[in-house]
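Researcher: Quick test of sequence recovery. C-alpha cells follow.
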C-alpha cells in the first residue's frame, strides 16, 4: 500500500523572497536547531542552462530516519540518505524540489515534491507552496494492517517536519523582508 497526500500553504511573501528562504532553510545554524531531523546537506551539482534559463541543483540530504523505533531496529540504522533535485525557472517564476530516499529502499520509499509559484490571486505579494508526498513501506506488505499503521505513523512524522519547515521558512522570509527594508532605508 502507498500512502499519499497533498498539502498547500500560502506564504504572504513574494516568490523571490520565499525561494531565497528555501535555500537558507538548511544552511543557517539557528534553523538546524529546529530542524533536528536534518543531519547534513551537501550540494552535489549546480548547473545553469543558459538556453532554458533554468537552474538545476542536486543535493544530498542525510536525515534521522523518522520511522517508528521498532522499524529502525529491524532496519538496523536510524539515518537515511536522500537526493534532492531542484529546478528553478526564474522566467516563469517556479521552483520545484523533488526528494527521494536512496538508502533503505528495501524497506521504505518516500518521494516528496514541493513547488513554489506566485499565488494566482496575488502574484506579486504571495507565493503558493504545493507539497505532494508518497510513502510506501515494503517489507510488511504480507502484514498489510501493520504496514498501514507504520505508513500512517511515518506520514504523521513527515507532516510534523513539514509544519516545522514552514515555520522556519516564515521566519526566514520575515528576516529577509526586514533586511530589504533596512537596505532601502539606508539608500
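Model:
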Amino acid at each position: 500500500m502507498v500512502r499519499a497526500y497533498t498539502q498547500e500553504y500560502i506564504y504572504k511573501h513574494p516568490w523571490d523572497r520565499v525561494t531565497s528562504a528555501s535555500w537558507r532553510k538548511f544552511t543557517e545554524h539557528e534553523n538546524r536547531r529546529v530542524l533536528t531531523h536534518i543531519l547534513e546537506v551537501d550540494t552535489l551539482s549546480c548547473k545553469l542552462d543558459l538556453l532554458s534559463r533554468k537552474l538545476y541543483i542536486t543535493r544530498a540530504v542525510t536525515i534521522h530516519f523518522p520511522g517508528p523505533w521498532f522499524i529502525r531496529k529491524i532496519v538496523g540504522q536510524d539515518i537515511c540518505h536522500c537526493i534532492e533535485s531542484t529546478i528553478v525557472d526564474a522566467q516563469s517564476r517556479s521552483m520545484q524540489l523533488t526528494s527521494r530516499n536512496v538508502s533503505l529502499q528495501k524497506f521504505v520509499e518516500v518521494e516528496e515534491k514541493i513547488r513554489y509559484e506566485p499565488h494566482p490571486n496575488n502574484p506579486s505579494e504571495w507565493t503558493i507552496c504545493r507539497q505532494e508526498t508518497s510513502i510506501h513501506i515494503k517489507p510488511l506488505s504480507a502484514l498489510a494492517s501493520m504496514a498501514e499503521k507504520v505508513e500512517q505513523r511515518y506520514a504523521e512524522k513527515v507532516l510534523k517536519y513539514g509544519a516545522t519547515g514552514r515555520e522556519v521558512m516564515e521566519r526566514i522570509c520575515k528576516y529577509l523582508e526586514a533586511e530589504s527594508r533596512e537596505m532601502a532605508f539606508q539608500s
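The CA atoms of residues 66 and 156 lie 10 Å apart.
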